[in-house]
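Thread: quick sanity check before group meeting

JM: Hey all, I'm pulling together slides for Thursday and realized we never actually wrote out the predicted structure for the chain we discussed last week. Dropping the sequence here so it's in one place. If anyone has concerns about the input, flag it before I start.
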Amino acid sequence: LQHEGGVYDLQVASVTRSPPIFATASSSGDVFAFLPSQEGIYEQNSIHKYRLSASAVAWGHASDVLASASEDGSIQLHQMAEGGFAPKTTVAARDSTHVTAIQWHPQGVNELLVATASGCLKLYDQRCMSRPQGNLLEAQSPLLSLCTDGDYFGCGTSDGKLFVARFDSPSQTLVQTTHGRDVPVWSMAMRGGPQMFFSAGADGRLMQHGERRWKLSDTYNLAINSLDLQPESDILVSGSDSEQLQFFHLNYLGPKCLQDLGL
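JM (edit): ok, ran it. Output follows.
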């Protein structure tokens, strides 16, 4: 599929839907929805265009609302409609600095997590997006990555720090560690909260943290940009500037690399 602009984020609406629909955040400022036609051919539809690059997309739990965000600090909600999308509001929210990552709360329906360049992880409610409900985390450097797992959230920063905490008591349960000193953490994944979580950095290392700490992979300064670990799966997938996908099986002995795919 051809894509206009660099892909800054991508998320599939539902893994059970066939054929699936998905959305992307583009460096062109567009938020694209890829919808299959009756012939099964995917069509690229721009559903919103930001002034600066679009930075993140996140589907709601029922896949009927798509949240998107931009480097200009805007957050937009898009309501699923028959045959396409219609913006739910003109501007749902605007932060003072650019938004780096967004995810819907795994235990809620209306709560949206918003990671910002100011170092704050903010909690919004889609029923009243005029201002955040509060901050779950206040770091000293920009947040670059965000992940969730049940009752927990995790964030990675531009200077290599990692934070994991419970949603219901973030300050009391906060766990902090380091991926690497002054190394931007581009992506995180988690299984079991602070017991097992993963970080991928600009240094090309994929690290496991928690009860065990070790290096799972090293692409030698070719940044690992993305990690994916679905709730129903034991397979951790990583993608990097080395033009490879790596697959790791999470078992009781620890992650084991299953396959490297050259792209």
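AS: nice. The chain is about 0% helix and 55% strand. The two ends are 15 Å apart (CA to CA).
JM: adding both to the slides.
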